[in-house]
């Protein structure tokens, strides 16, 4: 497809040897900011250039639809991560196929994944830009610098032009399963919190908050102590990140928005703990459009939801109701890919005020193409992922059993392996080792994988569209607020 404006048309071509940006304009001045080979065709001026950072910046300057926008104001939104930089065209096509008013977040990757794969924030943004051109997408999109734990990560996102920043203070969440103590509370960073333990206790102990009919928060002193020990350090960490983001955005001269995420911890966020987090962050001046607590169990990577659906429904409804107490913000579903059964209930429970994040599922779609087109490469990816699983699994919610899977793939149905729960999770979490390995001939595995996807890019789009459409159907029918 081609992306057209009044002064310029743009397209991207993919081949196994690489990709090119093709531009056409009636006025040569429209091509002045781009790098490439110039030629003419009748009365038009043509440019063929590389998919470089300079050309991505020039595209975003020339075509407003290629500049990421704020997610705030859109009732539903869905993020689709892209570990390989080649999925955006298929992802955009899926949003187009489903329709509705859901806003796509088509540039999304965590700082952890960027570092693991040796990608820069600029590369994530630029590759999404070229994918949008390839798809002819002109309806707007968001850009999420995901799961940020340091101010340095914020700076990288601002430099690349990201507009959404997911602030993740999860490392500061404390384990209180053995019971919280006053000694732990007194050791918290009260100077950063601009408060004291006594002041916090007086503010929360004995309050009565009616969150929704049948749901009343009435914390006693021990519940307050538990929430403070568990999450006050995370509040301090989050407000530091938030203030750095605001100061950096002011210097950069453009608007940004924040999501707060404490989902990547081992301990569920209670309703009072959510209330405490929101109240304390608001007291310190933070604003956010989306919040990701740690939900009830059942969110494993790459699989359907494995928990109790009615428990999840009531859990989401309560978190949504707490969000409404603070002006209304989205409840964010992380590790949300491939959980088709919960999307309708999530939309219902949150009244459509929800943000879904997917990431690894687009990588698994890429492996489906590889299984068909380069079984030898698929076998190597399987070997690496299977060997790395025990270590890689420590960072994720997974339950795959390696002993239930074949070591050799001779005679194995590769697509069936990819669809099976054990194989799917092994491949899902093994991406870090696979994509940073060199093949026997010295070629980086990721480059061979990308070459297969460029050569068979129509196949990749054809796999992505129906797969992601299944994720989007429940979200695409919710109107913008």
TrEMBL record:
Q: What is its EC number?
A: 5.1.2.7
Recite the UniProt keywords alphabetically.
Isomerase, Metal-binding
Q: Which cofactor does it need?
A: a divalent metal cation
Enzymatic class: isomerase
Q: Which reaction does it catalyse?
A: keto-D-tagaturonate = keto-D-fructuronate
InterPro entries with a match to the protein in the record: UxaE
What are the positions of the active site?
146, 259
Question: Per UniProt, where does a divalent metal cation bind?
Answer: 147, 301, 334
- Indicate yes or no for the key word Aminoacyl-tRNA synthetase: no
A single Pfam family, by name?
A: UxaE
**Family as reported in the entry's similarity comment:** Belongs to the UxaE family.
Describe the function of this protein. Answer: Catalyzes the epimerization of D-tagaturonate (D-TagA) to D-fructuronate (D-FruA).
Q: What is this protein called?
A: Tagaturonate/fructuronate epimerase
Please give the organism. Answer: Brachybacterium rhamnosum
């Amino acid at each position: 497809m081609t992306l057209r404006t009044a002064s310029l048309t743009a397209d991207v071509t993919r081949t196994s040897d690489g990709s090119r940006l093709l531009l056409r304009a009636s006025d040569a001045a429209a091509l002045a900011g781009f790098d490439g080979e110039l030629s003419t065709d009748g009365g038009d001026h043509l440019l063929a250039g590389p998919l470089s950072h300079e050309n991505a910046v020039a595209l975003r300057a020339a075509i407003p639809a290629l500049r990421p926008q704020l997610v705030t104001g859109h009732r539903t939104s869905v993020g689709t991560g892209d570990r390989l930089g080649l999925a955006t065209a298929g992802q955009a096509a899926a949003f187009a196929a489903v329709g509705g008013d859901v806003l796509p977040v088509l540039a999304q990757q965590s700082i952890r994944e960027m570092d693991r794969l040796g990608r820069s924030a600029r590369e994530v943004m630029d590759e999404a830009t070229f994918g949008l051109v390839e798809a002819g997408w002109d309806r707007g999109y968001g850009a999420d610098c995901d799961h940020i734990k340091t101010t340095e990560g914020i700076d990288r996102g601002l430099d690349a032009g990201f507009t959404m920043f997911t602030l993740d203070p999860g490392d500061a969440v404390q384990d209180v399963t053995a019971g919280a103590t006053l000694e732990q509370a007194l050791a918290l960073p009260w100077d950063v919190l601009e408060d004291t333990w006594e002041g916090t206790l007086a503010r929360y102990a004995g309050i009565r908050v009616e969150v929704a009919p049948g749901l009343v928060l009435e914390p006693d002193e021990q519940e307050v102590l538990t929430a403070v020990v568990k999450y006050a350090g995370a509040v301090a960490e989050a407000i530091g990140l938030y203030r750095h983001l605001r100061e950096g955005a002011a210097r950069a001269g453009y608007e940004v928005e924040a999501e707060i995420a404490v989902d990547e911890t081992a301990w569920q966020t209670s309703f009072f703990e959510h209330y405490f987090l929101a109240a304390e962050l608001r007291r310190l001046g933070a604003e956010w459009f989306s919040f990701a607590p740690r939900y009830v169990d059942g969110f494993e990577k790459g699989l359907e939801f494995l928990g109790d659906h009615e428990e999840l429904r009531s859990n989401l409804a309560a978190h949504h109701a707490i969000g409404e107490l603070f002006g209304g913000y989205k409840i964010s579903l992380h590790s949300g890919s491939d959980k088709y059964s919960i999307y309708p209930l999530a939309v219902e429970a949150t009244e459509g005020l929800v943000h879904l994040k997917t990431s690894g599922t687009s990588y698994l779609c890429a492996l489906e193409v590889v299984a068909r087109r380069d079984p030898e490469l698929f076998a190597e990816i399987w070997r690496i992922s299977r060997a790395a699983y025990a270590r890689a699994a420590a960072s994720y919610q997974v339950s795959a059993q390696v002993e239930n899977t074949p070591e050799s793939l001779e005679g194995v149905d590769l697509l069936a392996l990819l669809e099976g729960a054990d194989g799917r999770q092994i491949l899902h979490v093994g991406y870090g080792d696979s994509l940073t390995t060199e093949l026997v001939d010295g070629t980086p595995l990721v480059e061979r994988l990308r070459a297969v996807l460029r050569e068979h890019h129509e196949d990749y789009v054809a796999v992505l569209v129906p797969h992601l459409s299944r994720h989007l159907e429940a979200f695409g029918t919710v109107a913008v607020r």
